[in-house]
Design brief:
about 375 residues, mainly beta, 6-stranded antiparallel β-sheet, 4-stranded antiparallel β-sheet, 2 helices, about 40% strand
Length: about 375
């Protein structure tokens, strides 16, 4: 979701545009309504996955720059429900099971289809069902349903972060895949803006099996544990004030992936995924090993979720698979629910420098 900062951006750009046109009145951007949605009896829904090229003018292009290769993208829709939208975060398991949460308080699950080269070509087994509260009833009302972040702990428990009514809930998942009723989990001791809360959340096994990272849309970061309070960490800021932090994903060791998205009416949507060496260290000691920029002719939207997996069969050996998903309900009714895949191969280590010649002392006669 977007909140007060984005309203300020829209206002500033609109104000400048108004001055440039003799203060011509402007209309606010259209609001995407959330209709009361019918879901079929039972959670199963049919999903239409329309392929999306990296560059519509050059469908064969796969080079995304920065060492990243496009591994396929899909525009997801469904004729069975109007609730397949607003997807705010996702997790993809090693076997290709996708779990996403929406800011209407729903869970979407599906199985990814990949071709022989490991490229994303479709989804099957779509399911959509509402998150439940501690009383066992589906969540009701935007104040309580606005789920923004999803984390999967090493034991399989799910953490879901919410904004508006800012909280983190933990759901245990049984062998049958059913989610338990939620229990509260520690959250940062701070006051968030109404619609700019805990957008990013991720397990952080490097700090322990019950550790997780939480990020606010303005870039604030905390390290939390189920067994203790949250501790503030250095912020993860975007390129400028038009960008917001929207996603985390655990990487190798201490590293994580961060997702920022930016928007203004002039440049439109932009997103960047960064691989950060260790978010717990001071900023001067953090290193960005790679950055995926989703901009220009690439499919652009309000990307809010990121997930990393090992390379599937057919993908480049030693690569990391990146999935990003967009929330289509921000500022325009032309937005889409996009699921994009990329592969990244770490550059080879530079050859070691030759040893310096040892100067031998000259013996004086």
């Amino acid at each position: 979701m977007i909140g007060p900062r984005f309203a300020l951006i829209l206002g500033l750009v609109g104000g400048l545009g108004g001055m440039a046109t003799q203060c011509t009145p402007r209309r606010d951007p259209p609001v995407v309504a959330t209709p009361p949605a019918p879901v079929k009896a039972g959670p199963e829904i049919g999903v239409v996955a329309t392929p999306v090229p990296l560059d519509a003018a050059n469908p064969a292009k796969i080079d995304a720059g920065g060492g990243f290769t496009y591994a396929g993208g899909l525009h997801l829709t469904s004729a069975d429900t109007t609730r397949l939208h607003g997807l705010s975060d996702l997790s993809v398991s090693p076997d290709g099971r996708l779990t996403a949460i929406s800011d209407d308080g729903d869970v979407f699950e599906a199985k990814l289809q990949l071709d022989a080269a490991g490229r994303l070509i479709g989804v099957t087994d779509g399911k959509l069902w509402p998150l439940k509260g501690p009383d066992g009833q589906p969540l009701q009302g935007k104040e309580h349903t606005d789920a923004e972040g999803l984390a999967v702990l090493p034991n399989g428990d799910r953490l879901v972060s919410f904004e508006r009514n800012h909280r983190i809930w933990r759901y245990a998942v049984g062998p049958d895949g059913q989610w338990s009723l939620p229990a509260p989990a520690p959250k940062p001791a701070t006051i968030f803006p109404d619609n700019e809360g805990m957008e990013a959340i991720s397990a952080y096994p490097a700090a322990g099996p019950d550790a997780y990272l939480v990020g606010g849309e303005e870039g604030e970061v905390w390290l939390c544990r189920l067994s203790s309070d949250c501790k503030s960490l250095p912020p993860q800021s975007g390129p400028d004030f038009t960008w917001g932090l929207t996603g985390f994903a655990p990487f190798a060791g201490t590293a994580i992936a961060t997702l920022h998205r930016g928007y203004d009416p002039v440049r439109g949507w932009r997103s960047v995924v960064r691989f950060i060496s260790d978010p717990t260290k001071p900023l001067a000691q953090q290193r960005t090993s790679a950055a995926l920029h989703i901009e220009g002719a690439m499919p652009r939207d309000n990307f809010e979720g990121v997930s990393l997996t090992a390379p599937p069969a057919g993908a480049p050996a030693g690569s990391t698979r990146i999935y990003v998903i967009s929330d289509d309900g921000a500022v325009s009714n032309s937005q889409r629910t996009l699921l994009l895949a990329f592969d990244w191969v770490a550059p080879p280590m530079p050859a070691p420098l030759p040893p310096k010649p040892v100067k031998r002392p000259v013996r004086k006669r």
